[in-house]
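wait is this the right file?? whatever heres the structure
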């Protein structure tokens, strides 16, 4: 039995529980989890915001730990290696999407790290708010030695989810890039875009996070709720990365784009939004979405962060504080990623 922390039903507080991990298959590694970041997707899932959660649920997909054992033919990692697991733990491996490195779009159905079906179509997965995990080595990432493990954990989702669209939409030296929402994803977007040479503007609800944004590499900061604040920015940006987790009006933000500019949506609010098509047509503006990133690109991002010394700003908490952390994230009060110290779950303690 593996100690874990999860929710028995929608909107109920998370509490200690136990789960069962599978026996090692030949290409599996067993990981003793050290840290697991808390992504807003965990909060959406526990709240059943997307209406598709299977309970009980053990969230967590920003996982860093040590390899403690491996299957008979697992050869990529050795016992003691520091490794990471992100959102994806399995896929069919042979379809066009898997072969292209887009495992999240596996044509047979990807297996996510929690609240997802294994490739057998029957067993549910449980995530990283737990002491151990068993994962096929093909889906395990190497954490660069230069990076602090607790601060590297959020790279496994917040890092790749912002790195991938920044690369896809040509974030380059001199590009005018805005990041909307300075939470877990947003602060990684700022650090990564600044490292790629962009001139970064943070669009945040209030002025509270202004000093932090500048320390992370942003050149400009705009408090979006101040009257007229956005009017002054019309036509300013080549790229906007929208990380906001709550419903919001996109139309105003599209007016901030230059001609041929792109707003890429990574936030997943639970409600639909209405778009004024004319605002896009006049100026060939693009609205795009982006879903995490594949395994090879995640390793590329980790290696990039290793070379550039990029890690998350974290508040490390024991598991017992997860419910309080969720409440703060729902208020937009996160600086800038909660990371669970999973040693707090060992020995049955909450
Ligand atoms: P987070 O750490 O909670 O940050 C969200 C930020 O949104 C807040 O810090 C806040 O920033 C801003 N915000 C604006 N209005 C808000 C409101 N009414 N309530 C709460 N926050 C508000 O969340 P996250 O972990 O970065 O995740 C952001 C979104 O991305 C979530 O919807 C999550 O599910 C989604 N996500 C998507 C992917 C993907 O593959 N596309 C991957 C991971 C997560 P300010 O204070 O600066 O306004
Ligand atoms: Zn996530
Ligand atoms: Zn596939």
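ok assuming it is, sequence goes like this
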């Amino acid at each position: 039995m593996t100690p874990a922390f999860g929710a028995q039903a929608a909107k109920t507080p998370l509490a200690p529980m136990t789960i069962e991990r599978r026996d090692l298959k030949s290409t599996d590694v067993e990981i003793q989890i050290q840290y697991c970041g808390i992504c807003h997707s965990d909060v959406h899932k526990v709240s059943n915001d997307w209406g598709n959660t299977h309970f009980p649920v053990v969230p967590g997909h920003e996982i860093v730990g040590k390899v403690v054992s491996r299957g008979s033919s697992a050869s990529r990692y050795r016992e003691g290696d520091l490794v990471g697991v992100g959102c994806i733990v399995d896929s069919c491996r042979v379809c066009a999407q898997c072969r292209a490195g887009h495992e999240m779009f596996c044509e047979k159905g990807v297996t996510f790290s929690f609240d997802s079906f294994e490739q057998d179509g029957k067993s549910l997965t449980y995530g990283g708010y737990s002491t151990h995990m068993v994962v096929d080595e093909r889906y395990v990432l190497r954490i660069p030695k230069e990076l602090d493990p607790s601060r590297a954990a959020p790279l496994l989702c917040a890092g790749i989810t912002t790195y991938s669209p920044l690369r896809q939409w040509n974030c380059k030296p001199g590009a005018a890039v805005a990041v909307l929402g300075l939470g877990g994803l947003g602060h990684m977007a700022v650090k990564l875009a600044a490292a790629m040479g962009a001139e970064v503007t943070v669009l945040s609800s209030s002025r509270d996070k202004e000093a932090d944004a500048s320390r992370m590499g942003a050149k400009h900061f705009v408090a979006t709720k101040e009257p007229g604040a956005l009017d002054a920015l019309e036509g300013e940006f080549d790229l906007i990365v929208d990380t906001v987790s709550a419903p919001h009006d996109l139309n105003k933000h599209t007016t901030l784009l230059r001609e041929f500019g792109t707003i890429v949506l990574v936030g997943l609010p639970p409600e639909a939004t209405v778009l004024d098509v004319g605002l896009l047509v006049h100026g060939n503006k693009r609205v795009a979405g982006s879903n995490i990133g594949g395994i090879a690109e995640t390793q590329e991002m980790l290696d990039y962060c290793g070379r550039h010394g990029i890690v998350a700003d974290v508040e490390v908490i024991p598991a017992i504080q997860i419910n309080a952390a969720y409440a703060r994230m729902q208020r937009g009060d996160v600086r800038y990623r909660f990371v669970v110290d999973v040693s707090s779950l060992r020995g049955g303690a909450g």
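The longest helix spans residues 295-308. so i think its the right one actually
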